[in-house]
Amino acid sequence: MNIEELREYCLSKKGVTEGFPFGETALVFKVAEKMFCLASLEGDFSANLKNEPEKNLELREHFPAIKPGYHMNKQHWNTVEIDGSIPDKMLKQLIDDSYRIVVEKLPKKKQEELKNS
């Protein structure tokens, strides 16, 4: 997966916006103003994605390309190096998980608005 494929996949989800709130080297994807993916455009291509704490530990144990989230809460975020060692299907699942976790934390009214958009 390259940056354009990641971008298209993230933007295909309901209610997603993109921006550069941290400068031009970090592309951020949000749903309802809450970040679910931060893609690094500088140096090695990587993405910070949210997941459940237990799942994060398991992923880090099994995949050398998945590390504690760089500049993020390391319990809830992973940095996934997108170097070809993680299959695209799995990467899409990690993006889906991050999006779902963020949406589930939204107020019920926001969740309904998103469902009906």
TrEMBL record:
Coiled-coil boundaries: none
Keywords tagged on the record: DNA-binding
InterPro entries given in the database record: YjbR (IPR007351), YjbR-like_sf (IPR038056), YjbR/MT2646/Rv2570-like (IPR058532)
Pfam families: YjbR
Keyword Cytoplasm in record: no
One Gene Ontology molecular-function label: DNA binding
Keyword flag Electron transport: no
Protein's name in the database: MmcQ/YjbR family DNA-binding protein
Organism of provenance: Mariniphaga sediminis
